[in-house]
């Protein structure tokens, strides 16, 4: 069974949560289903993409859906699945279309047709998966005219992080993992740490957003003025996990997230999490997890204090492995495979 995964046209040079999520989907689906092969759209030529040999087209990230709308709308025979990965507050509008066009020009990728719309493209999908019931409800409220068939598939972690758990002595108080860009509120978070937690070490891991050079320069200036803050740049996944094991609290204070994988991995590594209220995460408040409005400084400070001064609850129940999380989707794919064989 031939499956085409569509993420973003710049996924090959700019990793993100949508790509990482899809990579785990690919691994589990190929491991669990005999005869299933997944290929990525951004790794294929336009001629290969135009092939009608796809049994299933599975797209991720509704905000970048127009990147490949030409191939989604013209491939009539394939069964089509969408995992929207929908940020809180997202609304389809002309700005989204223009940004899609500009990104394609800058990354020298195929130009999208501006005559296509998100709403019209959504109507050709047969099935939807959502990261939480909250994302599912928001999608249906945003596109209220659509009647859809769907399921919830929560984010998860590599099973090895659960079965072979390793904990370390903590030599670092605070950690941020994310691209250096305004949406992630990196600079405002550093300012809060400098003002209220100057005794604490803060490590930051992440690549710079090449479209936000001025923000990165401001970030570098602030680093020079912050002796307790260390920027580690880009690190391998294993290096990130090891740093999490030695850190007390991960800070995810973005303006908008969908369901941060990094929060789940931190918990699996014995690192507590302060995460944004602006997300669709399936996590709930606990001894290990607190939520804060990134624009509410008092809320952030109180939450950081609580997390730094309380111990970690090692009976973590908030996380599961990808095999368990994707069991329902694997079942859906197997059902489609049996129909295709007939």
Structure description:
The protein is an alpha/beta fold and 342 residues long. It folds into two domains: 2-153 and 326-341, Rossmann fold, CATH 3.40.50; 160-309, Glycogen Phosphorylase B (Rossmann fold, 3-Layer(aba) Sandwich), CATH 3.40.50. The protein has helices at residues 17-32, 46-49, 69-74, 94-106, 118-122, 133-142, 160-163, 186-196, 213-224, 237-245, 261-268, 297-309, 322-325, 327-341; strands at residues 2-6, 37-40, 56-60, 79-83, 127-130, 150-152, 172-177, 202-205, 229-233, 247-252, 272-276, 289-292. The strands form two sheets. The chain has a six-stranded parallel sheet with strand order 2-1-3-4-5-6. It has a six-stranded parallel sheet with strand order 9-8-7-10-11-12, sandwiched between helices. Strand 7, helix 8 (186-196) and strand 8 (202-205) form a beta-alpha-beta unit. The chain is globular. The protein starts with a strand and ends with a helix. The model has no long low-confidence stretch (mean pLDDT 87).
């Amino acid at each position: 069974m031939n499956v085409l995964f569509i993420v973003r046209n710049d996924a090959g040079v700019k990793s993100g949560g949508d790509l990482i999520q899809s990579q785990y989907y690919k691994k589990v689906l190929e491991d669990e289903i005999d005869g299933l092969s997944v290929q990525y759209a951004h790794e294929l030529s336009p001629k290969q993409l135009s092939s009608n040999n796809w049994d299933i087209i599975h797209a991720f990230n509704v905000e970048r859906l127009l990147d490949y709308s030409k191939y989604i709308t013209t491939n009539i025979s394939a069964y089509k699945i969408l995992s929207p990965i929908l940020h809180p507050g997202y609304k389809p509008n002309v700005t989204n279309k223009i940004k899609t066009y500009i990104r394609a020009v800058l990354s020298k990728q195929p130009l999208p047709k501006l005559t296509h719309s998100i709403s019209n493209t959504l109507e050709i999908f047969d099935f939807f998966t959502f990261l939480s019931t909250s994302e599912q409800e928001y999608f249906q409220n945003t596109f209220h005219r659509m009647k859809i068939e769907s399921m919830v598939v929560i984010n998860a972690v590599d099973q090895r992080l659960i079965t072979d758990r390793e904990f370390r002595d903590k030599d670092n108080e605070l950690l941020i993992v994310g691209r250096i860009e305004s949406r992630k509120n990196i600079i405002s978070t550093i300012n809060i740490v400098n003002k209220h937690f100057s005794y604490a070490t803060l490590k930051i891991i992440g690549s710079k957003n090449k479209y936000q050079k001025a923000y990165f320069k401001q970030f570098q200036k602030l680093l020079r003025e912050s002796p307790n803050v260390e920027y580690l740049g880009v690190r391998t996944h294993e290096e990130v996990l090891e740093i999490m094991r030695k850190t007390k609290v991960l800070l995810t204070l973005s303006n908008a997230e969908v369901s941060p994988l990094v929060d789940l991995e931190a918990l699996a590594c014995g690192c507590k999490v302060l995460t944004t209220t602006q997300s669709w995460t399936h996590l709930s408040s606990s001894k290990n997890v607190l939520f804060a409005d990134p624009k509410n400084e008092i809320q952030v400070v109180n939450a950081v204090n609580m997390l730094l001064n309380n111990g970690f609850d090692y009976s973590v129940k908030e996380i599961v492995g990808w095999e368990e999380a994707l069991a329902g989707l694997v079942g859906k794919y197997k059902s489609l495979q049996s129909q295709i064989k007939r």
